[in-house]
Amino acid sequence: MRGRLVAGNWKMHGNRVSNLALLNAVLAGIGGLEGAACAVCVPFPYLGEVAVRLKGSPLAWGAQNLSEHAQGAYTGEVSAGMLAEFGCSYVLVGHSERRQLFGESDATVAAKFAAAQASGLTPILCVGETLEERDTGRTEQVVGRQLDAVLTRVKIGSAVLAYEPVWAIGTGRTATPEQAQAVHGALRLRVGAQTRILYGGSVKAANAKDIFSMPDVDGGLIGGASLVAADFSEIVKAAARAAQRKD
Fold it and tell me: Is 77 a catalytic residue?
């Protein structure tokens, strides 16, 4: 049985005071919850303080990016080994903003994925299509290409996939549950029954139940809603309830 996971992506938000308040509120909101794992992926400078606050709690933590290099003259980069030292369980790999804004290629994403695995981290591999790619019927081709870049280099192992349609990130638009399931189902055929596949694209407390009810949706990669403790907690609860119904 594959587990359920809800991972919050704080992106470039937060400060030391607001982070502590948010973590405390989330922990209070998910206290005693069973059926879904949850994590927050935070900016690099806050990893130490987040690790201290969350140690021994049900909330795991991770990073939003990493270098494909283990060490060396790469000023400004952060290696997988460094993240592991701070107790990270997860790291996002190939988020659409990294691909689009920072020019990360499929090959670079695959190298980062391999580096994360080699250091014992669980990579959350993000794949997804633009609106133009969806409108021209290339969704499965695009996500298949992004996935193949990794699979031709390493095995998926215990990694997590996250389908994040680019056209539904930060736009207020969300794929319908049926649209999400169609892509998740195609990915499932490629990676097998045991791999968790998350949906990431404007998931909110109001739509989480319907999205998580789909048979191949195993949770969510949550952006803006992860910065609101009540909303994030409700999304985690929706994933836990969906797990109970499915299993």
Answer: no
